[in-house]
Design a protein that fits this description.
The chain has 13 helices and 12 strands. It is of the alpha/beta class.
């Protein structure tokens, strides 16, 4: 039996790759030297794409695949895709937020704890011998009873909220639309920042959220406030964040993502009131394997005529619709 043709824009984990190679004829755009010519030759054969959010998928690429029905993405983010072009053609998109939810939520809490208890500085204090010569490390601040604001209450945002609540934090959230959720909804983002001690950002990237965390939001969070970003670097106005951290208008930033990766701005990395992680919130063997497996399972469901396991709603990206 002839295997279905799949365009591969980005390689997957070994176990997932073995399954894909067994079930499909893979057209390796990611390995092609002349990518445009490769797409022109093989694109019309393919009804599906296997990729992740780091590979581009622009309107020209979509146009070169007239029979495209599904883009199966092995990451949560997909800001490098032309979503309007996908929506206009009625092409389905799946992602993997459900697979990476727990590790990203855990990382957000880890960054909050590490920043609030000065883990990096305390580690250096212990290793250097300062503990013996200078005495006990300075007292830090407890989290229990403090206020946690969450920007974005999707799958991961809700997992963070549950963790924060279990730790004794008072949880509130901002979202484009009020959710059927037990936590307090604050429709004004600046107001949420003003009343929060810790603000965790977990919204989708892309033009619709670019610079969402503005200078005004960071100043509202204030000189004692902690900003944690486990979303995308584009969501935070990074020059404004550097200025706020440098001037003391923002107390601390704990970051997993940056405007420029893998080379964050040296002006940011030089600041002492930052706790930094190398875009690795989902970086465990178990989660990355689960993300790749979900890509495989979505492809399998599509070719079997079954419902997709993790579809993304693209209706908001149709022309004339307000940005999602």
């Amino acid at each position: 039996m002839t295997k279905p043709d799949v365009m591969m824009l980005f390689p997957q984990r070994p176990v997932a790759m073995a399954q894909l190679e067994d079930a499909y004829t893979l057209h390796r755009w990611d390995l092609a030297e002349d990518k445009a010519a490769f797409l022109a030759e093989h694109g019309p054969k393919c009804r599906t794409i296997a990729t992740n959010g780091h590979a581009p998928l622009d309107a020209a690429m979509i146009e070169a695949m007239p029979n495209l029905e599904l883009v199966s993405c092995s990451s949560a983010g997909f800001e490098s895709f032309d979503l309007a072009a996908l929506a206009k053609r009625g092409i389905a998109l799946t992602n993997t937020s459900q697979a990476l939810c727990d590790d990203v939520a855990d990382t957000a809490i880890m960054l909050m704890l590490a920043a609030r208890r000065s883990l990096v500085a305390a580690d250096a204090y212990t290793r250097s011998g300062d503990w013996a010569t200078k005495g006990p490390f300075p007292l830090q601040r407890s989290l229990k009873g403090r206020k946690l604001g969450i920007v974005g209450l999707g799958t991961i945002g809700q997992a963070i909220a549950r963790r924060g609540e279990a730790m004794g934090l008072q949880v509130s959230y901002w979202n484009r639309r009020k959710k059927d959720a037990p936590w307090r909804f604050v429709p004004d983002l600046v107001e949420l920042a003003r009343e929060s001690d810790n603000l965790i950002v977990i919204v989708a990237g892309g033009e619709g959220t670019r610079g969402l965390i503005s200078a005004e939001v960071m100043e509202a969070l204030g000189p004692e406030g902690l900003l944690i970003n486990v979303a995308r670097g584009s969501v935070v106005d990074e020059p404004a964040m550097i200025a706020a951290l440098s001037s003391g208008k923002l107390g601390h930033a704990a970051l997993d993502v940056y405007a420029s990766e893998p080379n964050p701005d040296p002006a940011l990395t030089a600041l002492p009131n930052t706790t930094l992680f190398p875009h690795h919130a989902s970086g465990t063997v178990e989660t990355r394997d689960a993300m790749a497996q979900l890509l495989v399972d979505n492809l399998k469901a599509h070719y079997a005529g079954k419902p997709l396991l993790s579809p993304v709603d693209l209706r908001a990206y149709l022309p004339g619709t307000v940005e999602a």
